């Protein structure tokens, strides 16, 4: 039996680091070992990863990319040598990162729980694009365990999917649909030959199909393996694109119904022998395809051909999918003199833990039997105490024939050890009127039932068991709120992407991060004549500014960031540019992170420490500067109750401090440290311009209108760096929000609340929430009393739930987060309970 080790990573590489959860189990069973630790932030590792990606993509080998890359060689170094050197630097920094003290316990636990000769799946589960792009196969744990292989997964995890339709195929035969896409500048015939030589397989080739032809083929037949060779890429927002032919580009979403039908009919594996396939893998995993193999970067044509040959040789001869992948990947090492990092390219992607797939599993799938495949697939081994009559019943088709006059004959099977038996039960049609109850008795019963159910729901909620559901419901209501489509005109974001970083290098600027001091100085000099209200730098700069920039900062204020050491994890602190940097120009960039990796709260303040001497957050510091400069509003501390700490007031708005019980939160004391408030996100982002547009002068004529009296935020906008999940992120392919945009949302919320433009998100007192939940339980009780049939009750419950949803949405628009999930549970359970009790007593 194979072992499964799952590493869940929540966070980011640049600022927060990662919260890491290790789970070790057997096969696809639940984990028996769980351990929580952290990996620290590493800007250097992020930079090495970005540099390697850039160097790798400059290689001029014929590849299966959708668009050929522009080749730039500065003449000082061979591109193969440059790629090799950057790969070595990335590997060294990656190994150092994994040897961090905060991660050492996880590495040790893995080695103690697993033996080197065991078959081990290592599943890296994360929504962070940078974490998925790291070369996890180089981890020395993988190198030292010869039967271990890494697979990637998004943060979503699916349960066992239940029964699937059996594949209609000839005995001992694997059905393969081979899609041969656009073959411009590549040789897909080699892939075709490799598939034709595969023993025990029936391959149907689909050369350069149209969209409709592919969709029909997925519907018409049952397949074990889906194969694609051709051109592909992953575009912005991590969307995978295939080129079926010279005129047709396609996303997985455009054939999702065909793929879903194929999965239902037994599709187990997809192999995309094409470039940059992580976006394709994400989309297929979202559809719950069990196993996907893709190339994580642009793949040379020769490498793609050899990988397919090596992999299918191992897989068809009985190796498990993961071991076949490892063998094929390691054999590509021999090509790296000509094709650097060839062995880094292939990667397995799967939506959840699964039994290791083998060729034999495809030829002879397990009998699904009559029970759910998550539990038992063998009728003969269910129990040694089955009577002959019971065995006959289990192995015979169910009968709907009735017995007895005036009644319905039913066959009931009781699985109760040695006492198991089969008997015929005749349910007679009632001949007398059911017992009736007075209205008072009904209402009294309903009232008691509602009180009991609401008490249980409130108790379960207090234990925190509903928090995950309540936060998801909160995210949903945030997304569907009306009137959130007007951007905040007071904020301008200066975005720094990969092209902006490359622009600085091309200009000969010295780089120690994503923004050089020369570029920052030029930026401030362009802004200064137009008098922005406040400028914020949301980029870690823990080293001194160059002298020219220090001199300029004496004339023009800049709010910079530092990072306090986290009091809920082992994440280290980050110091300001210089020890004597003015505290009034500093703000910490720490944010409280929920367990699902989503940012729903923000700090206004918290105690300073040795790393970060300020007590105010970056966003709150900037908002205060803007309100004071533009509106004359200053922060005040007020007393709202003699039994509570003082509260912050800006203008006429008092900022309530988040407590352990707030809305759907049931937080521990450690999670409520600092002065926290809920983040009220908007559906649209503020105005954004690129760094290179400003430095090149292309926006000079518009700069006055863009900058004057505005808040200027400078930060990285890159889907692979410093991105965070928010309530607007949804599903495995969730779009993460750049950190600088999250800061802009927080700043906008503070300013809008202080100026009375929109309410702060608040919550009711606990006693009011209990009364609210109880009221909806009694609504369910009334529905149960009035529902004389299941149909009437179902309609009544649905109408009540829609009404509850609408009221909760209306209150959220007004600034109140009230319990939706507990109220819905109380309503539904009470309605079912009351109706059940009514019919029970009526029958008696």
Explain the overall architecture.
The chain has 844 residues and is α/β, with parallel strands linked by helices. It has 25 helices and 33 strands. Helix 6 runs parallel beside helix 10.
Gyration radius, rounded: 31 Å
Instruction: Please tally the helical runs, counting DSSP H or I stretches of 4 or more residues.
Output: 25
Mean pLDDT: 83
How many distinct beta strands? 33
Helix content: 25-40%
Q: Biggest sheet, open or closed, and with what strands and sense?
A: 11 strands, mixed
Distance between the termini: 53 Å
Strand order, largest beta sheet: 3-2-1-4-5-14-13-12-8-6-7
Task: Provide the β-strand percentage band.
Answer: 15-25%
Structural class: alpha/beta
User: Which spans of ≥5 residues are poorly predicted at pLDDT below 50?
Assistant: 66-76, 157-164, 366-437
Instruction: Give the overall shape.
Output: globular
């Amino acid at each position: 039996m194979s072992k499964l080790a799952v590493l869940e990573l929540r966070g980011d590489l640049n600022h927060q680091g990662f919260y890491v959860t290790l789970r070790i189990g057997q096969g696809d069973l639940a984990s028996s070992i769980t351990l929580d630790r952290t990996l620290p932030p590493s800007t250097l590792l992020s930079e090495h990863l970005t540099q390697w990606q850039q160097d790798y993509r400059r290689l001029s080998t014929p590849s299966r990319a959708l668009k050929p890359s522009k080749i730039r060689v500065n003449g000082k170094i061979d591109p193969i040598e440059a790629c090799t050197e950057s790969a070595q630097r990335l590997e060294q920094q990656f190994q150092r990162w994994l040897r961090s003290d905060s991660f050492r316990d996880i590495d040790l636990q893995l080695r103690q729980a697993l033996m080197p000769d065991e078959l081990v799946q290592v599943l890296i589960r994360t929504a962070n694009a940078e974490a998925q792009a790291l070369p996890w196969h180089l981890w020395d744990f993988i190198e030292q365990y010869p039967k271990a292989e890494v697979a990637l997964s998004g943060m979503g995890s699916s349960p066992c999917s239940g029964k699937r339709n059996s594949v209609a195929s000839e005995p001992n035969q694997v059905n393969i649909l081979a899609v041969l896409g656009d073959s411009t500048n590549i040789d897909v015939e080699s892939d075709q030959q490799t598939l034709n030589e595969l023993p025990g397989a029936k391959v149907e080739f689909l050369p350069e199909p149209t969209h409709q032809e592919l969709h029909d083929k997925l519907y018409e037949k049952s397949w074990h393996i889906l194969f694609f060779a051709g051109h592909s890429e992953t575009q912005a927002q991590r969307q995978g694109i295939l080129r079926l032919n010279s005129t047709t580009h396609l996303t997985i979403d455009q054939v999702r119904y065909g793929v879903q039908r194929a999965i239902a009919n037994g599709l187990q594996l997809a192999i995309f022998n094409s470039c940059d396939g992580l976006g394709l893998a994400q989309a297929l995993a979202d559809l719950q395809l069990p196993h996907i193999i893709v190339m994580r970067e642009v793949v040379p044509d020769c490498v793609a051909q050899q990988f397919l040959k090596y992999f299918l040789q191992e897989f068809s001869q009985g190796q498990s999918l993961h071991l076949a992948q490892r063998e094929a990947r390691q054999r590509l090492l021999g090509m790296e003199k000509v094709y650097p990092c060839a062995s880094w390219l292939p990667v397995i992607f799967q939506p959840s833990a699964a039994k290791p797939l083998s060729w034999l599993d495809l030829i002879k799938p397990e009998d699904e039997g009559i029970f759910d495949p998550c539990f038992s697939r063998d009728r003969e081994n269910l129990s040694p105490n089955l009577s002959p009559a019971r065995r006959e019943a289990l192995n015979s088709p169910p009968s709907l024939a009735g017995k007895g006059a005036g009644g319905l004959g039913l066959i009931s099977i009781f699985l109760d050890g040695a006492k198991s038996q089969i008997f015929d039960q005749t349910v007679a049609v009632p001949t007398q009127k059911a017992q009736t109850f007075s209205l008072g008795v009904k209402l009294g019963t309903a009232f008691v039932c509602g009180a009991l159910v609401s008490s249980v729901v409130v108790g379960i909620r207090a234990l925190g068991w509903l928090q995950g559901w309540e936060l998801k419901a909160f995210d949903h209501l945030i997304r569907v709120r009306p009137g959130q489509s007007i951007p905040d005109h007071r904020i301008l974001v200066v975005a720094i992407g990969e092209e902006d970083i490359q622009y600085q290098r091309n200009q000969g600027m010295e780089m120690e991060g994503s923004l050089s001091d020369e570029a920052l100085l030029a930026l401030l000099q362009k802004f200064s004549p137009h008098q922005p209200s406040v400028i914020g730098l949301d980029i870690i700069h823990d080293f001194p500014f160059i002298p020219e920039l220090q001199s300029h900062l004496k004339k023009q204020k800049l709010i910079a960031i530092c990072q306090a050491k986290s009091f809920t994890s082992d994440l280290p602190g980050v110091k300001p540019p210089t020890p004597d940097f003015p505290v009034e120009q500093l703000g910490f960039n720490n944010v409280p992170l929920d367990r699902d990796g989503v940012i729903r709260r923000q700090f206004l303040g918290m105690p300073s420490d040795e790393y970060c001497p300020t007590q105010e957050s970056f966003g709150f510091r900037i908002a205060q500067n803007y309100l004071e400069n533009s509106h004359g509003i200053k922060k005040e501390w007020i007393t709202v109750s003699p039994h509570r700490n003082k509260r912050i007031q800006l203008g006429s708005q008092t900022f309530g401090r988040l407590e352990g019980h707030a809305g759907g939160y049931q937080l521990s004391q450690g999670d409520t440290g600092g002065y926290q408030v809920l983040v009220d996100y908007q559906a649209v982002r503020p105005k954004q311009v690129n760094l290179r547009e400003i430095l090149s002068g292309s926006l000079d004529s518009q700069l006055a209108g863009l900058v004057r009296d505005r808040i200027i935020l400078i930060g990285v906008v890159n889907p692979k760096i410093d991105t965070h999940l928010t309530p607007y992120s949804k599903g495995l392919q969730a779009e993460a929000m750049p950190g600088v945009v999250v800061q802009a949302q927080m700043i906008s919320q503070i300013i809008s609340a202080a100026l009375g433009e929109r309410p702060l998100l608040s919550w009711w007192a606990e006693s009011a929430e209990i009364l609210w939940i109880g009221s909806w339980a009694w609504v369910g009780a009334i529905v149960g009393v009035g529902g004389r049939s299941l149909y009437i009750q179902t309609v009544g419950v649905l109408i009540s739930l829609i009404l509850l949803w609408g009221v909760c949405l209306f209150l959220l628009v007004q600034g109140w987060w009230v319990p939706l999930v507990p109220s819905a549970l109380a309503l539904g359970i009470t309605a079912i309970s009351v109706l059940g009790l009514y019919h029970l007593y009526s029958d008696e």
